[in-house]
Amino acid sequence: APRMDFFIQTVGERVKREGEALLAEQAAAEPRHLDALLAFAARAWRRSLNADERETLLAAYRADRAEGIKHDPALRATLARVLSSPWFLYRVEQPATAPRWQPVSGDELATRLSFLLWDSIPDDELRASAPRLHDPAVMEAQVRRMIKDSRTRGMAEEFGARWLGVRDFVANHGRSLKDFPEFTPAVRDALAEEPVRFFEDLLINDRAVSDVIATDAVIVNDVLAKHYSIPGVTGPEWRRVEKVAAYGRGGLLGLGAVLAKQSAAARTSPIKRGAWVAHMLGDRLPKPPPNVPPLPDAVPAGLSVRELTERHRKDANCAACHVRIDPYGMTLEQFDAIGRLRPASAMKPGESRSTLRDGTDVNDFAGLRNYVAGPRREDLLRTLARKLTGYALSRAVLPSDRALVDEVSKTMIAGGRWSDALLVIVRSEPFRCIRPAVGTLKSAANPTK
Q: In 3-state terms, what secondary structure has residue 126?
Protein backbone atom coordinates (compact mmCIF):
# COMPACT_ATOMS: atom_id res chain seq x y z
CA ALA A 1 0.00 0.00 0.00
CA PRO A 2 2.76 2.54 0.85
CA ARG A 3 4.45 1.75 -2.47
CA MET A 4 1.17 2.27 -4.28
CA ASP A 5 0.60 5.61 -2.52
CA PHE A 6 4.14 6.67 -3.41
CA PHE A 7 3.60 5.66 -7.04
CA ILE A 8 0.31 7.55 -7.26
CA GLN A 9 1.87 10.62 -5.65
CA THR A 10 4.88 10.49 -8.01
CA VAL A 11 2.70 10.12 -11.09
CA GLY A 12 0.40 12.87 -9.92
CA GLU A 13 3.26 15.27 -9.40
CA ARG A 14 4.66 14.39 -12.83
CA VAL A 15 1.29 14.98 -14.49
CA LYS A 16 0.98 18.28 -12.66
CA ARG A 17 4.45 19.40 -13.75
CA GLU A 18 3.84 18.41 -17.36
CA GLY A 19 0.46 20.12 -17.31
CA GLU A 20 1.98 23.31 -15.95
CA ALA A 21 4.75 23.11 -18.56
CA LEU A 22 2.21 22.63 -21.33
CA LEU A 23 0.16 25.62 -20.16
CA ALA A 24 3.31 27.72 -19.95
CA GLU A 25 4.32 26.63 -23.45
CA GLN A 26 0.87 27.47 -24.77
CA ALA A 27 0.97 30.89 -23.10
CA ALA A 28 4.43 31.52 -24.56
CA ALA A 29 3.14 30.58 -28.03
CA GLU A 30 0.25 33.06 -27.94
CA PRO A 31 2.34 36.07 -29.10
CA ARG A 32 3.65 33.99 -32.00
CA HIS A 33 0.07 33.09 -32.94
CA LEU A 34 -0.82 36.80 -32.99
CA ASP A 35 2.22 37.58 -35.14
CA ALA A 36 1.17 34.83 -37.55
CA LEU A 37 -2.36 36.23 -37.62
CA LEU A 38 -1.10 39.70 -38.51
CA ALA A 39 1.11 38.23 -41.23
CA PHE A 40 -1.90 36.34 -42.58
CA ALA A 41 -3.97 39.54 -42.53
CA ALA A 42 -1.33 41.25 -44.71
CA ARG A 43 -1.53 38.38 -47.21
CA ALA A 44 -5.33 38.29 -47.13
CA TRP A 45 -5.63 42.06 -47.54
CA ARG A 46 -2.88 41.95 -50.20
CA ARG A 47 -0.87 44.80 -48.67
CA SER A 48 1.04 45.78 -45.55
CA LEU A 49 -0.99 46.70 -42.50
CA ASN A 50 -0.47 50.12 -41.01
CA ALA A 51 0.04 50.63 -37.27
CA ASP A 52 -3.60 51.55 -36.61
CA GLU A 53 -4.88 48.42 -38.36
CA ARG A 54 -2.50 46.18 -36.45
CA GLU A 55 -3.52 47.76 -33.17
CA THR A 56 -7.24 47.47 -34.00
CA LEU A 57 -6.94 43.73 -34.58
CA LEU A 58 -4.87 43.22 -31.44
CA ALA A 59 -7.24 45.37 -29.39
CA ALA A 60 -10.17 43.19 -30.47
CA TYR A 61 -8.28 40.10 -29.35
CA ARG A 62 -7.31 41.66 -26.01
CA ALA A 63 -10.89 42.80 -25.37
CA ASP A 64 -12.13 39.24 -25.82
CA ARG A 65 -9.47 37.94 -23.46
CA ALA A 66 -10.38 40.58 -20.88
CA GLU A 67 -13.95 39.25 -20.92
CA GLY A 68 -12.70 35.80 -20.01
CA ILE A 69 -12.65 34.28 -23.50
CA LYS A 70 -9.84 31.78 -23.98
CA HIS A 71 -7.02 32.23 -26.47
CA ASP A 72 -8.26 29.89 -29.21
CA PRO A 73 -11.80 31.34 -29.61
CA ALA A 74 -10.45 34.89 -29.24
CA LEU A 75 -7.94 34.20 -32.01
CA ARG A 76 -10.67 32.72 -34.22
CA ALA A 77 -12.85 35.78 -33.64
CA THR A 78 -10.00 38.06 -34.72
CA LEU A 79 -9.40 35.88 -37.78
CA ALA A 80 -13.09 36.28 -38.62
CA ARG A 81 -12.59 40.05 -38.50
CA VAL A 82 -9.79 39.71 -41.05
CA LEU A 83 -11.86 37.56 -43.41
CA SER A 84 -15.00 39.71 -43.13
CA SER A 85 -13.16 42.95 -43.80
CA PRO A 86 -13.82 44.81 -47.06
CA TRP A 87 -10.06 44.69 -47.61
CA PHE A 88 -10.36 40.92 -48.03
CA LEU A 89 -13.79 40.70 -49.68
CA TYR A 90 -13.16 43.43 -52.26
CA ARG A 91 -10.22 44.48 -54.37
CA VAL A 92 -10.02 47.95 -52.87
CA GLU A 93 -7.84 50.51 -54.62
CA GLN A 94 -7.14 54.13 -53.73
CA PRO A 95 -8.36 56.53 -56.45
CA ALA A 96 -5.96 58.92 -58.09
CA THR A 97 -5.47 62.15 -56.19
CA ALA A 98 -4.34 64.09 -59.25
CA PRO A 99 -6.74 65.23 -62.01
CA ARG A 100 -5.39 62.58 -64.38
CA TRP A 101 -4.56 58.89 -64.35
CA GLN A 102 -1.80 57.91 -61.96
CA PRO A 103 0.01 54.62 -61.23
CA VAL A 104 -1.54 52.31 -58.67
CA SER A 105 0.59 51.23 -55.72
CA GLY A 106 2.94 48.28 -56.02
CA ASP A 107 0.66 46.15 -53.83
CA GLU A 108 -2.36 47.06 -55.96
CA LEU A 109 -0.50 46.26 -59.18
CA ALA A 110 0.60 42.90 -57.73
CA THR A 111 -3.03 42.13 -56.90
CA ARG A 112 -4.15 43.05 -60.42
CA LEU A 113 -1.51 40.77 -61.91
CA SER A 114 -2.23 37.90 -59.56
CA PHE A 115 -5.96 37.94 -60.17
CA LEU A 116 -5.36 38.15 -63.92
CA LEU A 117 -3.09 35.09 -64.10
CA TRP A 118 -4.17 33.05 -61.07
CA ASP A 119 -7.58 34.40 -60.01
CA SER A 120 -6.10 34.49 -56.51
CA ILE A 121 -3.97 36.55 -54.15
CA PRO A 122 -0.27 37.28 -54.75
CA ASP A 123 2.27 34.78 -53.46
CA ASP A 124 5.26 35.76 -51.35
CA GLU A 125 7.58 36.28 -54.33
CA LEU A 126 5.14 38.59 -56.09
CA ARG A 127 4.52 40.55 -52.89
CA ALA A 128 8.25 40.94 -52.43
CA SER A 129 8.51 42.29 -55.98
CA ALA A 130 5.55 44.66 -55.57
CA PRO A 131 7.58 47.83 -54.82
CA ARG A 132 9.48 47.37 -58.13
CA LEU A 133 6.63 45.99 -60.22
CA HIS A 134 6.24 49.17 -62.30
CA ASP A 135 9.71 48.42 -63.69
CA PRO A 136 9.00 46.72 -67.07
CA ALA A 137 11.79 44.17 -66.55
CA VAL A 138 10.46 43.15 -63.12
CA MET A 139 6.91 42.94 -64.48
CA GLU A 140 8.02 40.75 -67.38
CA ALA A 141 9.97 38.43 -65.09
CA GLN A 142 6.92 37.95 -62.88
CA VAL A 143 4.58 37.34 -65.82
CA ARG A 144 6.90 34.70 -67.26
CA ARG A 145 7.28 33.04 -63.87
CA MET A 146 3.59 33.09 -63.01
CA ILE A 147 2.29 31.89 -66.36
CA LYS A 148 4.21 28.63 -65.93
CA ASP A 149 2.74 28.01 -62.48
CA SER A 150 -0.09 25.49 -62.01
CA ARG A 151 -2.16 28.31 -60.49
CA THR A 152 -2.84 29.54 -64.04
CA ARG A 153 -5.75 27.13 -63.76
CA GLY A 154 -7.56 30.11 -62.22
CA MET A 155 -7.29 32.05 -65.48
CA ALA A 156 -8.12 28.94 -67.51
CA GLU A 157 -11.36 28.52 -65.56
CA GLU A 158 -12.44 32.11 -65.10
CA PHE A 159 -11.39 33.45 -68.48
CA GLY A 160 -10.97 30.52 -70.87
CA ALA A 161 -14.03 28.45 -69.93
CA ARG A 162 -16.20 31.57 -69.55
CA TRP A 163 -15.14 32.94 -72.93
CA LEU A 164 -16.20 29.62 -74.48
CA GLY A 165 -19.49 29.72 -72.55
CA VAL A 166 -18.97 26.42 -70.71
CA ARG A 167 -17.84 27.50 -67.22
CA ASP A 168 -21.17 26.25 -65.84
CA PHE A 169 -21.35 23.10 -67.95
CA VAL A 170 -21.66 20.63 -65.06
CA ALA A 171 -24.74 22.37 -63.64
CA ASN A 172 -26.24 23.68 -66.90
CA HIS A 173 -25.38 21.26 -69.68
CA GLY A 174 -29.03 20.91 -70.76
CA ARG A 175 -28.73 17.26 -71.84
CA SER A 176 -31.68 14.88 -71.75
CA LEU A 177 -30.42 11.88 -69.78
CA LYS A 178 -33.37 9.86 -71.05
CA ASP A 179 -32.29 10.35 -74.65
CA PHE A 180 -28.57 10.10 -73.88
CA PRO A 181 -27.95 7.49 -71.17
CA GLU A 182 -24.29 7.48 -72.26
CA PHE A 183 -24.00 10.97 -70.80
CA THR A 184 -22.80 9.69 -67.43
CA PRO A 185 -21.45 11.89 -64.62
CA ALA A 186 -17.92 10.78 -65.59
CA VAL A 187 -18.45 11.89 -69.20
CA ARG A 188 -20.09 15.14 -68.08
CA ASP A 189 -17.21 15.98 -65.74
CA ALA A 190 -14.58 15.10 -68.36
CA LEU A 191 -16.28 17.31 -70.95
CA ALA A 192 -16.38 20.19 -68.45
CA GLU A 193 -12.72 19.70 -67.52
CA GLU A 194 -11.37 19.61 -71.08
CA PRO A 195 -11.68 23.35 -71.86
CA VAL A 196 -9.89 24.21 -68.61
CA ARG A 197 -7.07 21.76 -69.37
CA PHE A 198 -6.97 23.08 -72.94
CA PHE A 199 -6.33 26.64 -71.74
CA GLU A 200 -3.92 25.49 -69.04
CA ASP A 201 -1.84 23.82 -71.74
CA LEU A 202 -1.88 26.97 -73.88
CA LEU A 203 -0.82 29.18 -70.98
CA ILE A 204 1.74 27.04 -69.16
CA ASN A 205 3.47 26.07 -72.40
CA ASP A 206 3.13 29.64 -73.71
CA ARG A 207 1.81 28.52 -77.08
CA ALA A 208 0.76 30.84 -79.89
CA VAL A 209 -2.60 32.46 -79.14
CA SER A 210 -3.87 31.35 -82.55
CA ASP A 211 -3.52 27.72 -81.41
CA VAL A 212 -6.88 28.22 -79.75
CA ILE A 213 -8.41 28.01 -83.24
CA ALA A 214 -6.78 25.13 -85.03
CA THR A 215 -4.19 23.25 -82.99
CA ASP A 216 -4.11 19.60 -84.08
CA ALA A 217 -4.15 18.31 -80.51
CA VAL A 218 -6.45 17.67 -77.57
CA ILE A 219 -6.02 17.34 -73.82
CA VAL A 220 -7.93 14.21 -72.74
CA ASN A 221 -8.10 11.41 -70.19
CA ASP A 222 -9.31 7.87 -70.82
CA VAL A 223 -12.98 8.74 -70.31
CA LEU A 224 -12.94 11.58 -72.82
CA ALA A 225 -10.76 9.70 -75.31
CA LYS A 226 -13.31 6.89 -75.33
CA HIS A 227 -16.14 9.41 -75.79
CA TYR A 228 -14.23 10.86 -78.76
CA SER A 229 -13.19 7.42 -80.11
CA ILE A 230 -9.50 8.36 -79.86
CA PRO A 231 -7.51 5.14 -79.39
CA GLY A 232 -4.46 4.47 -77.27
CA VAL A 233 -5.36 6.52 -74.17
CA THR A 234 -5.50 4.61 -70.90
CA GLY A 235 -5.73 5.76 -67.31
CA PRO A 236 -7.30 8.82 -65.66
CA GLU A 237 -4.30 11.12 -66.18
CA TRP A 238 -4.89 14.05 -68.51
CA ARG A 239 -2.45 14.24 -71.42
CA ARG A 240 -1.91 16.02 -74.73
CA VAL A 241 -2.63 13.85 -77.78
CA GLU A 242 -1.42 15.08 -81.18
CA LYS A 243 -2.81 14.57 -84.70
CA VAL A 244 -6.50 14.31 -83.84
CA ALA A 245 -8.05 15.99 -86.90
CA ALA A 246 -9.21 12.58 -88.15
CA TYR A 247 -11.38 12.30 -85.04
CA GLY A 248 -13.00 15.70 -85.56
CA ARG A 249 -10.98 17.40 -82.84
CA GLY A 250 -8.50 20.20 -82.39
CA GLY A 251 -9.14 23.79 -81.35
CA LEU A 252 -12.21 25.39 -79.84
CA LEU A 253 -14.64 24.11 -82.52
CA GLY A 254 -13.97 20.50 -81.53
CA LEU A 255 -14.53 20.85 -77.79
CA GLY A 256 -17.28 18.44 -76.77
CA ALA A 257 -18.58 20.70 -74.00
CA VAL A 258 -19.17 23.50 -76.51
CA LEU A 259 -20.90 21.19 -79.00
CA ALA A 260 -23.11 19.71 -76.27
CA LYS A 261 -23.92 23.02 -74.58
CA GLN A 262 -24.95 24.54 -77.91
CA SER A 263 -27.52 21.82 -78.59
CA ALA A 264 -31.14 21.22 -77.71
CA ALA A 265 -31.92 18.79 -74.90
CA ALA A 266 -32.55 15.78 -77.14
CA ARG A 267 -31.06 16.81 -80.51
CA THR A 268 -28.45 18.97 -82.13
CA SER A 269 -29.17 22.62 -82.84
CA PRO A 270 -27.54 24.25 -85.88
CA ILE A 271 -29.13 27.50 -84.72
CA LYS A 272 -27.49 27.50 -81.29
CA ARG A 273 -24.17 26.29 -82.63
CA GLY A 274 -24.24 28.80 -85.46
CA ALA A 275 -25.07 31.68 -83.12
CA TRP A 276 -22.17 30.65 -80.90
CA VAL A 277 -19.74 30.63 -83.85
CA ALA A 278 -21.02 34.03 -85.00
CA HIS A 279 -20.55 35.39 -81.47
CA MET A 280 -16.97 34.08 -81.29
CA LEU A 281 -16.21 35.73 -84.65
CA GLY A 282 -17.63 39.04 -83.46
CA ASP A 283 -20.46 39.05 -86.01
CA ARG A 284 -23.22 41.51 -85.17
CA LEU A 285 -26.62 39.85 -85.21
CA PRO A 286 -29.99 41.60 -85.23
CA LYS A 287 -32.24 41.02 -82.27
CA PRO A 288 -34.68 38.13 -82.81
CA PRO A 289 -38.23 39.28 -83.52
CA PRO A 290 -40.84 38.79 -80.78
CA ASN A 291 -43.22 35.85 -80.65
CA VAL A 292 -41.05 33.50 -82.73
CA PRO A 293 -42.22 29.94 -81.99
CA PRO A 294 -39.42 27.69 -80.67
CA LEU A 295 -38.40 24.57 -82.52
CA PRO A 296 -39.56 21.30 -80.95
CA ASP A 297 -37.18 19.45 -78.63
CA ALA A 298 -37.57 16.28 -80.67
CA VAL A 299 -37.27 16.12 -84.45
CA PRO A 300 -40.64 15.24 -86.06
CA ALA A 301 -40.80 11.90 -87.80
CA GLY A 302 -39.60 12.02 -91.39
CA LEU A 303 -37.45 15.15 -90.94
CA SER A 304 -33.76 15.62 -90.24
CA VAL A 305 -32.46 18.40 -88.01
CA ARG A 306 -31.26 20.16 -91.13
CA GLU A 307 -34.69 19.99 -92.75
CA LEU A 308 -36.35 21.18 -89.54
CA THR A 309 -34.00 24.16 -89.38
CA GLU A 310 -34.46 25.03 -93.06
CA ARG A 311 -38.24 24.99 -92.64
CA HIS A 312 -37.91 27.41 -89.71
CA ARG A 313 -35.67 29.68 -91.81
CA LYS A 314 -38.33 30.07 -94.48
CA ASP A 315 -40.31 32.25 -92.08
CA ALA A 316 -39.65 35.80 -93.33
CA ASN A 317 -39.45 37.07 -89.73
CA CYS A 318 -36.62 34.63 -88.99
CA ALA A 319 -34.64 34.71 -92.21
CA ALA A 320 -32.56 37.84 -91.45
CA CYS A 321 -30.89 36.17 -88.46
CA HIS A 322 -30.81 32.60 -89.66
CA VAL A 323 -29.12 33.33 -92.98
CA ARG A 324 -26.19 34.54 -90.87
CA ILE A 325 -26.00 31.80 -88.25
CA ASP A 326 -27.51 28.56 -89.58
CA PRO A 327 -24.81 27.88 -92.19
CA TYR A 328 -22.16 27.81 -89.47
CA GLY A 329 -24.19 25.40 -87.39
CA MET A 330 -25.02 23.12 -90.30
CA THR A 331 -21.33 22.33 -90.80
CA LEU A 332 -21.18 20.94 -87.26
CA GLU A 333 -23.93 18.38 -87.84
CA GLN A 334 -21.16 15.81 -87.86
CA PHE A 335 -21.44 15.89 -84.07
CA ASP A 336 -24.35 14.63 -82.01
CA ALA A 337 -25.93 16.44 -79.06
CA ILE A 338 -23.31 15.19 -76.59
CA GLY A 339 -20.34 16.10 -78.77
CA ARG A 340 -19.57 12.72 -80.34
CA LEU A 341 -18.51 12.43 -83.97
CA ARG A 342 -21.22 10.66 -85.94
CA PRO A 343 -20.21 7.82 -88.25
CA ALA A 344 -20.59 8.66 -91.93
CA SER A 345 -23.19 5.90 -92.28
CA ALA A 346 -25.47 7.76 -89.85
CA MET A 347 -25.56 10.94 -91.93
CA LYS A 348 -27.36 11.86 -95.12
CA PRO A 349 -25.22 13.02 -98.07
CA GLY A 350 -24.43 16.71 -97.77
CA GLU A 351 -25.92 16.99 -94.28
CA SER A 352 -22.91 18.93 -92.95
CA ARG A 353 -22.32 20.98 -96.10
CA SER A 354 -23.27 24.64 -96.21
CA THR A 355 -22.81 27.90 -98.09
CA LEU A 356 -21.93 30.77 -95.78
CA ARG A 357 -23.33 34.26 -96.12
CA ASP A 358 -20.16 35.47 -97.88
CA GLY A 359 -20.58 32.74 -100.52
CA THR A 360 -17.93 30.37 -99.14
CA ASP A 361 -18.80 26.69 -99.48
CA VAL A 362 -17.90 24.79 -96.31
CA ASN A 363 -18.16 21.09 -95.64
CA ASP A 364 -18.11 19.65 -92.10
CA PHE A 365 -15.97 20.46 -89.07
CA ALA A 366 -12.68 20.52 -90.98
CA GLY A 367 -14.05 22.97 -93.52
CA LEU A 368 -15.40 25.30 -90.85
CA ARG A 369 -12.15 25.14 -88.89
CA ASN A 370 -10.16 26.00 -92.03
CA TYR A 371 -12.51 28.90 -92.69
CA VAL A 372 -12.18 30.26 -89.14
CA ALA A 373 -8.40 29.70 -89.16
CA GLY A 374 -8.12 31.31 -92.61
CA PRO A 375 -10.39 34.14 -93.79
CA ARG A 376 -11.88 34.76 -90.33
CA ARG A 377 -8.76 34.25 -88.21
CA GLU A 378 -8.26 37.95 -87.56
CA ASP A 379 -11.92 38.43 -86.65
CA LEU A 380 -11.80 35.74 -83.99
CA LEU A 381 -8.50 36.97 -82.57
CA ARG A 382 -9.81 40.54 -82.38
CA THR A 383 -12.82 39.31 -80.45
CA LEU A 384 -10.55 37.30 -78.16
CA ALA A 385 -8.30 40.34 -77.66
CA ARG A 386 -11.26 42.45 -76.60
CA LYS A 387 -12.50 39.82 -74.16
CA LEU A 388 -9.02 39.29 -72.70
CA THR A 389 -8.52 43.02 -72.25
CA GLY A 390 -11.81 43.39 -70.41
CA TYR A 391 -10.98 40.42 -68.19
CA ALA A 392 -7.54 41.81 -67.37
CA LEU A 393 -8.98 45.23 -66.51
CA SER A 394 -11.87 43.70 -64.51
CA ARG A 395 -14.40 45.94 -66.21
CA ALA A 396 -16.16 46.56 -69.47
CA VAL A 397 -13.94 47.69 -72.33
CA LEU A 398 -14.32 51.43 -72.92
CA PRO A 399 -13.80 53.52 -76.07
CA SER A 400 -10.61 54.82 -74.46
CA ASP A 401 -9.27 51.23 -74.46
CA ARG A 402 -9.46 50.94 -78.24
CA ALA A 403 -5.75 51.52 -78.79
CA LEU A 404 -4.91 48.81 -76.25
CA VAL A 405 -7.32 46.31 -77.81
CA ASP A 406 -5.83 47.07 -81.23
CA GLU A 407 -2.30 46.45 -79.97
CA VAL A 408 -3.27 43.17 -78.33
CA SER A 409 -5.05 42.14 -81.54
CA LYS A 410 -2.00 42.93 -83.68
CA THR A 411 0.20 40.91 -81.34
CA MET A 412 -2.10 37.90 -81.59
CA ILE A 413 -2.55 38.18 -85.36
CA ALA A 414 1.22 38.39 -85.85
CA GLY A 415 1.59 34.97 -84.24
CA GLY A 416 2.28 36.18 -80.71
CA ARG A 417 2.26 33.82 -77.78
CA TRP A 418 0.10 34.18 -74.69
CA SER A 419 2.94 35.85 -72.79
CA ASP A 420 3.31 38.41 -75.61
CA ALA A 421 -0.37 39.36 -75.48
CA LEU A 422 -0.39 39.48 -71.69
CA LEU A 423 2.72 41.66 -71.57
CA VAL A 424 1.07 44.17 -73.89
CA ILE A 425 -1.81 44.42 -71.43
CA VAL A 426 0.13 44.54 -68.15
CA ARG A 427 2.49 47.22 -69.48
CA SER A 428 -0.41 49.43 -70.58
CA GLU A 429 -1.62 52.53 -68.78
CA PRO A 430 -5.14 51.15 -68.14
CA PHE A 431 -3.65 48.14 -66.33
CA ARG A 432 -0.94 50.00 -64.39
CA CYS A 433 -2.88 53.14 -63.55
CA ILE A 434 -6.12 54.26 -61.96
CA ARG A 435 -8.52 57.05 -62.76
CA PRO A 436 -9.20 59.94 -60.39
CA ALA A 437 -12.28 59.88 -58.20
CA VAL A 438 -15.49 60.98 -59.91
CA GLY A 439 -15.59 64.74 -60.28
CA THR A 440 -11.83 65.30 -60.38
CA LEU A 441 -11.09 64.04 -63.89
CA LYS A 442 -10.22 66.90 -66.22
CA SER A 443 -10.37 66.91 -69.97
CA ALA A 444 -6.95 66.61 -71.58
CA ALA A 445 -8.10 69.03 -74.27
CA ASN A 446 -9.54 71.55 -71.80
CA PRO A 447 -8.16 71.25 -68.24
CA THR A 448 -10.67 73.79 -66.97
CA LYS A 449 -13.57 71.35 -67.49
A: helix
Picking from 338, 87, 83, 70, the residue whose alpha carbon sits closest to that of residue 226 is 338
* Model confidence pLDDT, tens digit, residues 392-435: 999 999 999 999 999 999 999 999 999 999 999 999 999 999 98
3-class state of residue 308 by DSSP: helix
Closest to 157 measured CA to CA, from 195, 126, 122, 130: 195
In this structure, the strands spanning 433-434 and 361-363 are: unpaired
With 0-12 / 13-18 / 19 or more C-beta atoms within 10 angstroms meaning exposed / middle / buried, residue 332 is buried
User: Could you tell me if 253 and 368 are in contact, meaning their C-beta atoms sit under 8 angstroms apart?
Assistant: yes
Say how far apart CA 391 and CA 430 lie, in whole Å: 12
Strand partners, 433: 103
Q: Using CA of residue 367, residue 371, residue 374, residue 380, what is the dihedral sign? A: negative
Burial class (CB in 10 A: 0-12, 13-18, 19+), 424: buried
Q: How far is CA 152 from the centre of its chain?
A: 9
Q: What is the pLDDT of residues 343-391, one digit of tens each?
A: 888 888 888 999 998 999 999 999 999 999 999 999 999 999 999 999 9
The whole-model pTM stands at 0.87
